[in-house]
Amino acid sequence: MTNHWIDIKNANAVLIMGSNAAEHHPISFKWVLKAKDAGATVMHIDPKFSRTSARSDFHVPLRSGTDIAFMGGMVKYILDKDLIHKDYVVQYTNAAFIVGDGYSFKDGLFAGYDAATRKYDRKKWGFALDKEGVPKRDMTLKNPRCVYQLMKKHYGRYNLDKVSAVTGVPKDKLLKVYDIYAATHEPGKAGTVMYALGWTQHSVGVQNIRLAAIIQLLLGNIGVAGGGINALRGEPNVQGSTDHCILWHILPGYLPVPRADWPTLADYQKANTPVSHDPKSANWWGNRPKYMVSLLKGWMGEAGTPENGFGYDWMPKVEPGKDYSTLFLFDNMYKGKVRGGFIYGHNPCQSMPNASKIRKAMDKLDWLVVGEIHNTETSDYWHRPGVDPKDIKTEVFLLPSCQRGEKDGTISNSGRWHMWHYKGIEPMGESKSMGWMVVEIMNRVRDLYKKEKGAFPEPVVNLDWPEHYDADYLAKKINGWYTRDVTVGDKTHKKGEQVASFVALADDGSTISLNWLYSGCYGPSGNLSKRRDPAQTPMQANIGLYPGFSWAWPVNRRILYNRASVDLNGKPFSADKPVIEWKDGKWVGDVPDGGWPPMADPKGKYPFIMQTEGHGQAYGPGRVDGPFPEHYEPAETPLAANPFSKQLSNPCMLLAESDMDILAKPGDPKYPVVLTTYGVTEHWCGGGDTRNTPVLLEAEPQLYVEMDPVLAKKQGIKNGDPVVIESIRGKVEAIAMVTVRMTPLTVQGKTVHLVGMPFCFGWTTPGVGDATNRLTPSVADPNTAIPEYKACMVNVRKADKVTELFV
Ligand SMILES: Nc1nc2c(c(=O)[nH]1)N[C@H]1C(S)=C(S)[C@@H](COP(=O)(O)OP(=O)(O)OC[C@H]3O[C@@H](n4cnc5c(=O)[nH]c(N)nc54)[C@H](O)[C@@H]3O)O[C@H]1N2
Ligand SMILES: Nc1nc2c(c(=O)[nH]1)N[C@H]1C(S)=C(S)[C@@H](COP(=O)(O)OP(=O)(O)OC[C@H]3O[C@@H](n4cnc5c(=O)[nH]c(N)nc54)[C@H](O)[C@@H]3O)O[C@H]1N2
Ligand SMILES: [Mo]
């Protein structure tokens, strides 16, 4: 989230799109209701009616996978009616920037596309630069090559007729949403966007979010109270896991992973340190070398020296252009290229797309270690239905794990709050925490390396590794400390002293920090994640900032990009709900995005400090699939052609390629129904945890498929009937739930039916059915590799009887 949960109460309009917040973030949803009580309009745009729709002012059903068409129409509406926050757009976004001659858009493709590699040459999309190397601007927004004009042209194609025909949303409903939301362009009004998997889990996932961010920039809604672009995060600590890197392509604090074509630290720093020639741009990533060296030094300790790039020389390096995400990890496993590995707290046989392939891929392993609190479809895949354990060669080790209530540690919530939790009870039986397991296993591996040497021992034996797992010690190390006495101005910091924030981090080995973004969470004044102080100044209390409650990254800033909430002189756009204000030569309110004076001052800086040029990206040349979001159909679609262009689906989408990775052809009459999948309140994700909790299983006991009454009648299905849902990849049995929560939609003049299924039921629990994910394809967004779980094509028919899976 750019903002945080409490801040949602400050919104005048709440657009919940691609999320079922009332069911998946039920506690936090109270802030939406507070906004509603205060007069905000809450809108839910979602293929199915849910409890979120029930608590909203109104619900608008749309066809899954058509949000870019829906929002593209909103951009056209905003620009046609000139409903932008003019000063904000001109001063703070790149709308005035002139795009270079390389950029063009034709037949659904941007310039620079290479059909052989399915990739773009993004250099084509760069800005026209002046002789200092600063992007040229036209503050009147009239230049036909400025971002504003190119955007107008791009979304000029998204007229109401076309958008309505593609999304299945009637024109009056489109206009109603556009009108209410666009009204937040007025200075002093704010609209918030709340999204989750309904946007991310698509082959255009990132561009869905980009388009929402563009709308927010046009309306001046980023950085202000009640605004923002707010990702409602998932698994208890998924925010922490991305911040601290449980992803293949980033290291902690969003530092790119080393690549084979950056063999030395100097190469890495050169490639990853952006340069701006504009003195008004803070270009914060220009500090990246300090963060990288402090991280490496934290990992390698005394052994990390300038001569070995602080240990960079020993780091594994990925091959440029190769994708190591789970989609391809399992693809490689299926192709027999992976011998073994560890899986902790993850049930891929249930939760990954094309689960039949995942299950077969696991058969190819020699060994597997699973850290779990329950037996799951993953720990037990070797005796799944239809498989003889004698045919499976894998040796599986199950490490009994304790549960989060049995361990100390931190959790980062969607609003970036870093919060300590205390263990309630000692771990039961032989169970241990994952931290304990990792530390112990690594210590034994190090002992073996020390004794037996082995190939390339340096990265293992040189690691600065604790003897025992200790969450408090790790939290301190994440914050970072001085490795030697350091004098800054008239103050000397002693070796071992905690750094106060990332501003202290250096690139000479004199500091460590395991994550620069979290630096400050455990400074000289102690572990701030334990704070629970509700004190606020009246200005902070007005919008509910609670700066003394826990600690938020970065530097306890609660609303990101808050320098965009004030005008050039530091005066808040909103007199009622200011976030920061320049008063008597200093900022008051939230922690500002850098302490510089307001922009009108010669020493002032642009507000979007993480962007090289300092401006919000109305045009985003950094995305791999285009600088403007464009509507493409999902990989499987009921349409044979894309009404917006000749390009049917995202030209860059990721596809696993094997004999088990097949896609229904566009508009295939054998698979005419759109399937979307989701979680339920009563279960947790793949259900490995909650199916073992009897009351929860009783509340939601079996795999079902929600379908509209018209489809049910057409297929001769009654509520409660056993049915078979079939995609080109496989069949799944479920119980029919015939409900008006699903609506047939008119798409391109034809009726399209949608069905919805949860994905939490699996065969290890008797009588509940098995993985919905046997239907979904191994297709993913090209920026993030998030699979397209939310739109694929199926058919639904009545089954003769319930099978043994439901008995
Ligand atoms: N009780 C409970 N809480 C949970 C979880 C759980 O399993 N149980 N899971 C947690 C996790 S890991 C996560 S990531 C979050 C997920 O939180 P959500 O993203 O809210 O969860 P989903 O059930 O996937 O619901 C997404 C919504 O998107 C809609 N949708 C599908 N396709 C589209 C589309 O193309 N466009 C639009 N606009 N909407 C679409 C679906 O109909 C659904 O209502 O919840 C977390 N919270
Ligand atoms: N079709 C479809 N598929 C989806 C989604 C969808 O919307 N539709 N959503 C996707 C999303 S957003 C997510 S996050 C994934 C989630 O799917 P997974 O990543 O597979 O996560 P869970 O199903 O939550 O499984 C977590 C496992 O961890 C175990 N566990 C719980 N606590 C602990 C602990 O403290 N230690 C250890 N070692 N184990 C523990 C639980 O018993 C459980 O088996 O599913 C994805 N799959
Ligand atoms: Mo998730």
Automatic annotation (TrEMBL):
EC class: oxidoreductase
Keyword rRNA processing in record: no
Superkingdom: Bacteria
Keywords of the record: 4Fe-4S, Calcium, Electron transport, Iron, Iron-sulfur, Metal-binding, Oxidoreductase, Periplasm, Selenocysteine, Signal, Transport, Tungsten
A GO biological-process term: anaerobic respiration
InterPro entries: Asp_de-COase-like_dom_sf, Formate-DH-alph_fdnG, MoPterin_dinucl-bd_dom, Mopterin_OxRdtase, Mopterin_OxRdtase_prok_CS
GO cellular component, one term: periplasmic space
Domain (Molybdopterin oxidoreductase): residue spans on this chain: 2-443
Pfam families: Molybdopterin (PF00384), Molydop_binding (PF01568)
Iron-sulfur found in the keyword field: yes
GO molecular function annotations of the record: 4 iron, 4 sulfur cluster binding; electron transfer activity; formate dehydrogenase (cytochrome-c-553) activity; formate dehydrogenase (NAD+) activity; molybdenum ion binding; molybdopterin cofactor binding
Compartment annotation: Periplasm
Entry EC no(s): 1.7.99.4
Residues annotated as domain Molybdopterin dinucleotide-binding: 674-792
Necessary cofactors: W-bis(molybdopterin guanine dinucleotide); [4Fe-4S] cluster
NCBIfam families: formate-DH-alph
Protein family per UniProt: Belongs to the prokaryotic molybdopterin-containing oxidoreductase family.
Matches recorded under PANTHER family: FORMATE DEHYDROGENASE-O MAJOR SUBUNIT (PTHR43598:SF1), TUNGSTEN-CONTAINING FORMYLMETHANOFURAN DEHYDROGENASE 2 SUBUNIT B (PTHR43598)
Name this polypeptide is given: Formate dehydrogenase, alpha subunit
Organism annotation: Solidesulfovibrio fructosivorans JJ]
